[in-house]
Amino acid sequence: MFRRGLNICKNNNGFEIESHYDRILHSCTSLAFLSQIHSILTTTGIIKHSVHLNARVIIKYSDFLHLQSARFVFNATDHESSSFLWNTMLRAYANSGFCSEALEFYSLMRKTGIRPNNYTFPFALKSCADNLLPTYGKLLHSEIIRTGFGSDIYVEAALIDMYAGCDFIQDGRKVFDKMSYRDLVCWTSMITAYEQSEQAETALHLLHQMQQESFCLDWVTAVTVASAIGQLGDARRAQSVHGYAIRHAFFQDLPVVNSILSMYAKCGEVEKAEIIFHQTKQRNTITWNSMLTCYSQNGQASEALALFEQMKISDVNPNQVTALIVVSSCSYLGSQQLATKIHDFIIQNKIETNLTLWNAIMDMYAKCADLDTALRMFQEVPLSHLDVTSWNTLISGYGMHGYGKEALKLFNNMITHGFQPNHVTFTSILSACSHSGLIEEGRNCFSEMEKLCVKKEPKHFACMVDMLGRGGFLDEAYELIKNMSSEPNDEVWGALLLACKIYGNATLGKVAADNLFHLEPQHTGYYVLMSNIYATSRNWQEVGKLRQDMKNKGLRKPAGVSLIEFDNKLHGFHTGEEFNSFTREIYEKVERMVVEIKMVGYVPDLSCVFHDVEEEDKHGMLSYHGEKLALAFGLMNVSDTGLAIRITKNLRVCSDCHLAFKLVSRVYGRKIIVRDVNRFHHFEDGFCSCNDYW
After folding, report:
1. Nearest to 568, CA basis, from 362, 336, 263, 374
2. How many domains does the chain have?
3. DSSP secondary structure string, 21-72?
4. 415 is a domain residue
5. What is the pLDDT of residue 606?
6. Is residue 107 included in any domain, yes or no?
7. 344 and 440, same structural domain?
8. What is the rounded average pLDDT of the residues 375-403?
């Protein structure tokens, strides 16, 4: 059909064939065909007589990002008096992302004497926003006022977008408030500006004002509103906008479907997101990524990776965003084999790996207990191409594995090479010092923050309290909290409560717990910790009160799950797994394992079990903790003694299992790597890398 149209045009020299060429240009899908058409238009001389065809060819070249050819067409035309062609070329630069070239072209346009109009300014303003040039944008704003276009609705909407893109929201709001008339586009631009600057409540308040002025949402506004509600995590309002989208048939537009799906994900409504995903037959990459993100953000990493397997056999290609989500999910699970597979997939499918993705893959390997690969990836990047996140990732990796001295060395190298540490850097290095018991070094790093002009945030105080508390400096930790310039948050008090658990300080523990119960009344873990402190001091009356409080509030201790990978599958174990044909052998292995480690000094730590349980039952409950079941499974199936047994737990490993794992590593001559919610534990020959400091 294309060639037929081309032949018609060739055979009609001198006739009115502009419409034929226009249709052909519109349907052109390759640069080679476009060049052929351009050649015919030039040799026949037709293009000289049609401003419209010149503009069409310019835009078509820009669609293929061939801006040099587009500029060649512009230069070959009689454009000196045609603002239409100048605007077309400016549009080509702006919409193709050539922001600097667009602004240079605008300057040339002004020097040539071409007067800008209401089509010119929006493209110039867009380039300012995309290139984050608020100063240039304000100069354009002044010129807009001087040339009399300050009250043009299209220009005003572009000004709002420019100020929003440059993070000058208040300047954009001033333009908005001065408008004599606002259409739906202007309202949507201002609402979107607030949403993108994470001022969701203000965005929704403005939406309410818009509706009071009798404007109805279109699908573009609905996308913005869904994103704002997602930021707030407001499930009630999420249902409302979902219903509105259905009633107004917006679900025919895939961007609306994707935004509603993403909104439910951020509200923690996984089941509702699943329903929308499965009801959507025509899915694009964003749809898949939205559902993957939903699982990943809501702690369902296994479901995310299972969905990724489905995506791979669909007709949609994973992209860089997909890779980031999947890498994050693998980091959560801590599977080394899976990490290698995902990295191989990224390479084999030639997914562009920018520094953000590279850093994420480094982090994945570190969290999957493969520090050697993480370090190798760090060293493969030229020093000049690294960023602060690259350094932070490796410092954090060393810290979580208990290699505090190596983390400090890396921190010093970072400063030596001219990289400015940020608040994340200090969180990582203080955490590393805490996990390794490097108290004096941690104090020095904390003091160093002021010299390097890094503001101390609650997260840093939490790390310091954790470090001092684990080291037995409970009074100093409490004094640090009392002297904070801002209100201590739950992380700070939580660190103190954990330290009180370690040292059995019920008095100070109660102070921390009372603050935590006020700040996070629904957080079960704090009740359990305080209950354990009372149990250690045999204060059963207070234990009973706390358990009753939990019951009254409907709080339940979160279920612990321990994961171990074998034969390319992740196997999960919970405490007290149901006895069946699969678990029978595992239970028997646990019993033999306990007998053997008792012969080298294992004594069960019964403080890990509630007091109102029979003594015999306490021993049984400890033996069948999820991590012990996972370990028994590993000993049964990972026959190569040179391979480490790797286990991931979603909660803190208990003191009884920690002791048992040390002794198992000695008796069986196996290396065991456990990642709990706080850190990594490397068990070998009867010792743990944490030096019992966790």
Report:
1. 336
2. 4
3. HHHHHHH---HHHHHHHHHHHHHHTGGGG-HHHHHHHHHHHHHTT-HHHHHH
4. yes
5. 67
6. no
7. no
8. 95
User: Torsion over CA of 161, 164, 169 and 172, rounded to 10 degrees?
Assistant: -20
Helix, coil or strand: residue 573: strand
**Which residues have a Cβ under 8 Å from the Cβ of 50 and sit 6 or more positions away?**
18
CB 294 within 8 Å of CB 270? yes
Distance CA 506, CA 596 (A): 35
Q: What value does the mean pLDDT take over residues 172-200?
A: 94
How far apart, in whole angstroms, are the C-alpha atoms of residue 239 and residue 264? 9
User: Crossing angle of helices 301-312/285-297, nearest 10°?
Assistant: 160
**Cα–Cα distance for residue pair 70/62, rounded to 1 Å:** 6
570 and 552 fall within a common domain: no
- State whether 577 and 671 are in the same domain: yes
**Largest Cα–Cα separation, the chain:** 103
Residue type, 595: V
43 is written with which tokens? Answer: 């040799």
Does a structural domain hold residue 665? Answer: yes
Residue 14 lies in a domain: no
**Residue 106 exposed, middle or buried by CB count within 10 Å (0-12, 13-18, 19+):** buried
Average pLDDT over residues 323-344: 94
Measured in whole angstroms, the distance separating CA 297 from the mean position of its chain's CA atoms is 8
Least confident of 302-311, 508-517, 526-535, 615-624: 615-624
Residue 572 structural domain: 561-688
Rounded average pLDDT over 135-153 = 95
Cα 480–484–488 angle (5° rounding)? 95
Q: Which residue has the higher pLDDT, 23 or 239?
A: 239
Give the Cα separation of 155 and 100 in Å (integer).
20
Alpha helices in 368-505 (DSSP H): 371-380, 388-400, 404-416, 423-436, 439-451, 458-470, 474-482, 490-503
3-state secondary structure of 231: helix
Interior CA angle at 635 toward 632 and 636, to 5°? 85
The CB density around residue 499, as the number of other CB atoms within 10 Å, is: 25
**DSSP one-letter code for 662:** H
Per DSSP, the three-state class of 688 is strand
pLDDT of residue 614: 41
Q: Which two tokens stand for residue 528?
A: 């359990």
Least-confidence region, from 227-241, 260-274, 522-536: 522-536
pTM of the model: 0.80
Which pLDDT score is estimated for 618?
A: 43
Q: Mean pLDDT for the chain?
A: 90
Closest listed residue to residue 70, CA positions, set 50, 84, 91, 49: 91
Which pair of tokens denotes residue 390?
């690259």
In this structure, what are the phi and psi dihedrals at residue 141, rounded to the nearest 5 degrees? -60, -45
Query: What's residue 251's pLDDT?
Result: 85
- Any idea what the CATH number is for the domain that residue 297 is in? 1.25.40
Helix axes 169-178, 184-196, angle to 10 degrees: 160
Tell me what pLDDT residue 580 has. Answer: 64
* Domain end (from 384, 416, 439): 384
Q: Are 657 and 673 within one domain?
A: yes
As a whole number of angstroms, the distance between CA 519 and CA 103 comes to 51
Task: Say what percent of the chain tops pLDDT 90.
Answer: 74
Range in 21-25, 455-459, 562-566, 575-579 the model is least confident about: 575-579
**Which pLDDT score is estimated for 689?**
86
Q: What is the mean pLDDT of residues 329-340?
A: 92
Helices (H), 197-253: 200-212, 219-232, 235-247
Run of H or E including 683 = strand 680-684
pLDDT at 613: 43
Same domain, 447 and 539: no
